[in-house]
Each structure stands twice: as C-alpha cells, then as structure tokens.
Specification:
Layout lengths: L6 H20 L8 H4 L1 H28 L7 E2 L2 E2 H13 L6 H6 L1 H14 L3 H18 L3
Antiparallel strand pairs: 1-2
Length: 144
C-alpha cells in the first residue's frame, strides 16, 4: 500500500514526538504518564473521538466540497486553497474551547492533515495523524 511507504507521512508522524519533547523541555514539570488509565474518558474524548469527528467534518466534508470549486484545487506552496480555507475555519472553530494562542497552534497540524487528505483523496491518513498528534499531546500535557 502506497501510504505505508510514504516518506512524507513518516516525517509528519515523526515530527509530533519531536515537538512534544520540545514542548516538555520548555513546560516542565514532567507529566503523570499513568493519568489516562485513571481518567480514560477524559483522555479518549480529545485523543480519539474529537479528532475523528473533526476530520470527518473538515477533511471529509468541507475540504472535498471546497476542492470542487474552481479555485479550491489551486495550489500555493503545495497546499490547495481548499486546505488553506479549511485550516482557517478549523483554527477558528478551536476558539470555542481554547485560547487564541491554542487556536493558532492548530494551524500547522491542520495544514499537514489537509495536505495528506489532498494527497490521497481520502481522510484515513489525516485521521491517523490527527489521532496520533492529539493522543501524544493530551497524554503528556492534559493530565497535569
């Protein structure tokens, strides 16, 4: 399967632990790594359920609809206009529950998720990335 041999996808997956470690470096103390076992629902909602629902909405419904527009498939720096618009809306949607800085922080991951949605024409790679990114981040930083 092509997706399993995709070096770009491997880099996207590898980037997450790098940024988690960088974030840990600047935001010590060390996390309680066992907290998801104590509060599994508090972990699973943002780590698994929300990413799947967000990907179904933004990359499964909205991005393909925008790609149908004449301007939607126009690319800028290898990113479709549909992906760029979806990313802006994705970041804005995070303002409901998060600070402005946290909403801005989802821009780069969103562009990555959208890139792989465009690359493969389906949402499975972006769902896997989103779940992976959220799981690590929530596991390391939400249990404090």
């Amino acid at each position: 399967m092509q997706v399993l041999r995709d070096r770009q996808l491997g880099v996207a997956l590898g980037a997450a632990p790098f940024f988690w470690l960088l974030w840990l470096w600047f935001h010590a103390p060390a996390p309680d790594l066992l907290w998801p076992f104590v509060e599994p629902v508090r972990f699973l909602m943002p780590a698994l359920i929300y990413p799947v629902l967000e990907e179904m909405t933004f990359r499964g419904l909205l991005q393909p609809a925008l790609l149908q527009r004449p301007w939607g498939s126009v690319c800028h720096w290898r990113l479709s206009t549909a992906n760029l618009v979806c990313t802006v809306l994705f970041a804005i949607s995070h303002l409901v529950w998060h600070s402005g800085l946290q909403a801005l922080a989802v821009i780069v991951p969103s562009l990555i998720f959208g890139y792989f949605r465009d690359r493969y024409g389906r949402i499975a790679p972006s769902v896997v990335l989103h779940v992976f990114y959220n799981s690590g981040f929530i596991w390391l930083f939400a249990g404090r």
